[in-house]
Amino acid sequence: MNDHQTNEQSEERDLNQLIHDARGPLNRISMQAELIKLVLENDMPTDKALDAVNKILVSCQTCSHTLEQLSKSAKS
Amino acid sequence: MLKILLVDDDAEFTEVACHIIEFLGHDICTAGSLKEAYEWLENTTFDHIFLDFMLPDGSGLHLIDHLKNSNHESYITLITGHPLVKGILAGLCGPKVNYIAKPLQREDLEQALSRQEKPINAPHKNKTNSRLPQKHFDCLIGESEAMQELYTIISRIALTKANVMLLGESGVGKELVAQAIHNATNVAANGEAEMVATNCGALAKDLIASELFGHEKGAFTGAIGKKDGVFLRASSGTLFLDEITEMPIDMQPNLLRVLESNKVTPLGGTKEIDVNCRVISATNRSVEEIAESKVLREDIYFRLAVFPVSIPPLRKRKEDIPLLAAAFLEELNKEYNRTYQWRAEQIQRLTDYDWPGNIRELRHAIHRAFIMSDVDATNLTLPKDFRSPFSSVSENQHSLSAGRTIEDVEKELIRVTLDDVDGNKSLAAKMLGISTKTLYNRLHSYGELED
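^ Those are the sequences you sent over. The predicted structure of the assembly is below.
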């Protein structure tokens, strides 16, 4: 295995790691959205839904940050 | 209800997944690492394990190996967000291991859990392999559309603390529906509270206050000791007030006060006690009848019937009759150590009848048939006629419905009158207010004149 191949494999690993990192906040967003759906469909206390909305906003920022890193990694 | 372990190091995800899985009616524990998961598994058996592939102290595969080497027989669903891992996991999957990929949705969790026993609060999604009909919420039998709607309503009610009023004809199973709401509430709240039932129509007027609110020692003649009322005994659980419309109207203001303040003062007591039970009341009167007959104060009605639920009569869900018949026969077989079975034509006869006394009447008819059947036979012997004195009254009342012709109703009236006087036509004519000749003419035109 030459250096070029090793570098390519390393880059692929980094890329996969970044994709994995992006799925974390996406997963939280998805589950928090499901929770909001439950709250609204079942007339449960809305403070849980509001809390979930705030967590979704935070996860959006985290996801955006990971995508920026992904973009930088693609350019370099 | 399944016992579930969720192993994932993302604290926010585990928290929200717990809310959703608990809502689905399951009991869930969480672990943030392999170490924590091993600790749980030392003392607890789980039906299902949701397992993150990448954990801070190792891979989820280590846990699978650990389970294979021990006696645990849990189903495992691996959760992965890593694109490379999907291929590896697909190779691992078998009857007891599968995987789901992030981002997850509620359906992913439901699908993973659907491989196992049906959860108690999602009764309409799976079928069990048992030949016996399934008991929804541990007590209700029936798969008809009307019952499916009722199950959905019960699941929704279970998530609230609202008081419920059950409306339905006599014998439809109002107390069982109350029990189902109670069971579903316990599952949703992960609680062990009790349901206390009392019949407002069966209590002597003087004793109602004591039964509902309790009394102190010496509160009245005969009160030889202190007694807790049903409101207190049902604390944190469910209080079922059957035949609520039979409660004397002058007692209702006392009940209203408790419903409004959530506090009771036992008879002869001076201290108010907090109560926090859900009140499920029941009546066989319709809402219109309650309003017209004024048997229930309006303010009490609105406090009790925050959520009114109508329970369908058995004739509106005839497809459930075979299931109910199978369940009742199985109960009796078990109790008396017999092995009777239904024949197809017997089930058809049961289904064809209207059961004006509803499930209570069906159960009674099956019990009667069970007693009368030959001990050495394999099949039950059904009576030729299911009608009971009570059901014929109900049937007659029921026959006066829109859509019937006057001739039809007249014929029915003549038949009932003749039955009542053992076929004495002179007496029947007198009761009907017509001449004997007219009665003979009518019977002749119906083709029912025999002599």
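DSSP finds two helices and no strands in chain A. The mean pLDDT of chain A is 83.

Shout if you want it in another format.
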